Amino acid sequence: MAAISTPAAPGTFRYQLGSFWKDFSTNRGALTGLIFITLIMLVALFAPWVAPHDPAMQDRSALLVPPVWHDEGSWRYLLGTDAVGRDILSRLIFGARYSLSISAMVVLLSMIGGIFLGLLAGYFRGWVETIITRVMDVVLAFPSLLLALGLVAILSPGLTSAMIAIALVQLPYFVRLTRAAVIGEKSREYVIASRLAGAGHMRLMFNTLLPNCMAPLIVQATLSFSTAILDIAALGFLGMGVQPPTPEWGAMLANAREFMGSAYWAVTFPGLVILLTVLMINVMGDGLRDALDPKMKRS
Amino acid sequence: MVREAALTAASRPRVTSQTSNMLRFLLVKLAQLVPTFIGVTIVAFAFIRLLPGDPILLMAGERGISAARYAELQAQFGFDRPLVVQYWDFLKGLLQGDLGDSLVTHSPVTGEFFSRFPATLELSLFALAFAVIIGLPAGVLAATRRGKLLDHTVVGVSLTGYSMPIFWWGLLLIMFFSGTLGWTPVSGRISFMYFIDSVTGFMTIDTLLAGNWDAFLSALHHLVLPSIVLGTIPLAVIARQTRSSMLEVLGEDYVRTARAKGLSNFRVIMVHTLRNALISVVTVIGLQVGLLLAGAILTETIFSWPGIGKWMIDAISRRDYPSVQGGLVLIAFIVMIVNLLVDVAYGVINPRIRH
Q1: Which residue of A has its CA nearest to B319?
Q2: Among partner residues B35, B162, B324, which is closest to A153 by beta-carbon distance?
Q3: Span A107-158, pLDDT tens digits
């Protein structure tokens, strides 16, 4: 019992977590973002129970039904139906699964790859660093969406290729951040002490250095997550990402484009969901940055 | 007189050392670009060879191909020679401006690219102008009214703009301004009524050169929505950067000194603060070029704008691999050169960085 009431000693992980949470939770925007993202993740997770209809079910008697607040709308289809009579709300809910899980995979892939390469570059310096940074410069020389499109063209359009392409495009940001952080930390006393104590390269890189370089990487991960959602949707919209009839948000927009003049709801809602999700992640990312890294605090 | 002569004598070597500094800075930057340049050519070269399966069979499509034609094509593309030789030929062709022929139109890729590039450039410039004209004052105003309603509005709007899926934003604007209100055209660069000879490739300039005022207005009219769509994210980035660097500079001692001297608020903001805050804003504006080219792909698709973005998408969906390869390498070069210019401009306006 006493352990709970006594404040954690400075320097311990629990203390750091506590002070992080204090900073983060006073930021109302960031908290809103967190709540929104948690909600949308829960909705995605429990999609089969939350969604009112099967996302693939085509109701031939209800083509392009407007949302419920229109006179012709019905309570059966809250946000209306698309051109083949599928419930838009249900498709958006199931679409969250694709957008969120693909983007999470993208972030995971590029973060793991980027941390590994960045650690190598910052730790060993010399020619290892030169090669890695030069290759990353080449990746950065291409506009990201264009490079992703080119890669998808090579790998043939689809979910997996879109994921790999976007992960590769995001890679340089993680490499650069990790490298810079490692170089900054490497000459600090605790690292030298650890080396003198006989720690090997692996231990120094992954146990000593990496945990102290995580703050900017976590912030970058949230930014990458929102960029990934946008890029996946853009590829889907261009017909190069997730293929129809999968209810991915970008692909839904591409499908709805033809009916822009007659069915605004089919275009409006998928985009609105993308915008809100990306916005909330960015707001949360800003809060994370302010709380994790006072030096980077936005004025 | 003597003092003046001494002054000029003293300042002369400093001027030359400054220019040589600048030159060295430029050369170093150029030299740093060479490995990236080579890397880009390798990526572009590898592009066709990384395609799963035989590229010639892929290009031939489902109709198949005769053995004789296959050998002919293989010789034409040079696939029968060692990779190093192939790469060397590719590089030689590239330096001579030869990136091969399109599989669809059979005309040179370089020509196809540069005949469409002005359309993209014109759109990007208008988009950037839109972003700067609105984003810069918005950022300055937000910084001077920190914590007020206007500040919150600017921050909120720029965060929203930054998170915007621009392909959806374009569709929304078309639905509202072209559909509901009927104010703006839906697609293309100019009304079908006009036939303008292409001189510069810029529709706004060509129509003026032709002396056709109505056509000029039509071209402007067609630029409105695409420029807004393409300029939205740069606008958000510029407003945000202007605001934060203004706030940073406003806290500097010399700004306090300027205020203490009794200078008017306007003068303090415009002369002492903005000029220094602009240094980082200019860099950010320059860095938007890559973003604009990426955004052009989506914007041009939505508005059927006949630029390189739409051309690339068409090339990818038609599996016109030489065009995709050539487009990738040319766009990467353009981005690299612009980034170099931004670096140089940054060195000019901020001498501290040169050393």
Answers
A1: A153
A2: B324
A3: 999 999 999 999 999 999 889 999 999 899 888 888 888 888 888 877 877 8
Query: Model confidence at B54, in pLDDT bands (50, 70, 90)?
Result: low
Which residues of chain A lie closer than 8 angstroms to B295, CB-CB? 145
Q: SS3 of B130, please? A: helix
Among residues B175, B156, B165, which one has the least CA distance to residue A274? B165
A284 touches chain B (CB under 8 A): no
A135 touching B (Cβ < 8 Å): yes
Over the stretch A70-83, which tens digit does the pLDDT of each residue have?
777 777 777 888 77
User: Out of A138, A156, A298, whose CB is closest to B244?
Assistant: A298
Q: Do you find a cis peptide bond into A245, omega within 30 degrees of 0?
A: yes
- Dihedrals φ, ψ of B330, to 5°? -65, -45
The encoded tokens of residue A196 equal 């003198």
For residue B319, which residues of chain A lie inside 8 Å, CB to CB?
153
For tokens 């419920």, the residue is: A68
**Residue whose tokens read 């229109």:** A70
DSSP A123-161: HH-HHHHHHHHHHHHHHHHS-HHHHHHHHHHHH-SSHHH
Separation CA B307–CA B203 (nearest Å): 12
Q: How confident is residue B61, by pLDDT bands cut at 50, 70 and 90?
A: low
**Nearest residue on chain A to B37, judged by CA atoms?**
A138
C-alpha span between A65 and A62 (Å, rounded): 6
pLDDT at B6: 43
d(CA A67, CA A78): 5
User: Amino acid identity of B128?
Assistant: L
Least confident of A198-212, B8-22, B56-70: B8-22
Residue contact A234–B298, C-beta within 8 A: yes
Query: A74: which strand partners?
Result: A77
pTM for the structure as a whole: 0.85
CA distance A147 to A167: 11
What number is the average pLDDT over the span B219-246?
A: 92
Q: How many residues does chain A have?
A: 299
Residues on chain A touching B175 (C-beta within 8 angstroms): 260-261, 264, 267
Domains of chain B, start order: 113-354 (1.10.3720.10)
Per residue in B125-152, pLDDT (tens digit) is 999 999 999 999 999 999 988 888 999 9
Contact at CB, A138 and B40, closer than 8 angstroms? yes
A156 touching B (Cβ < 8 Å):
yes
Tell me the nearest-neighbour CA distance from A75 into chain B, angstroms.
Answer: 25
How large is the ipTM?
0.85
Chain segment B252-292, per-residue pLDDT in tens: 888 888 888 888 888 888 877 888 888 888 878 877 877 88
Q: How far is A99 from chain B (nearest CA, A)?
A: 13
Residue A239, both tokens: 């017909």
B chain contacts of residue A152, beta-carbon cutoff 8 Å? 316
Give the single-character DSSP code of B186: S
Chain A 54-113, residues with CB within 8 Å of chain B CB atoms:
none
Put simply, whether A259 touches B (Cβ < 8 Å) is no
Cα separation, B22 vs B342, in Å, equals: 14
Over the stretch A49-60, which tens digit does the pLDDT of each residue have?
888 888 877 877
Mean pLDDT of B37-63: 75
Out of B175, B294, B328, name the one closest to residue A267 (CB): B175
Contacts of A286 in chain B (CB under 8 A): 159
Amino acid making up residue B36: T
Give the integer Cα–Cα distance in Å for B293 and A142: 10
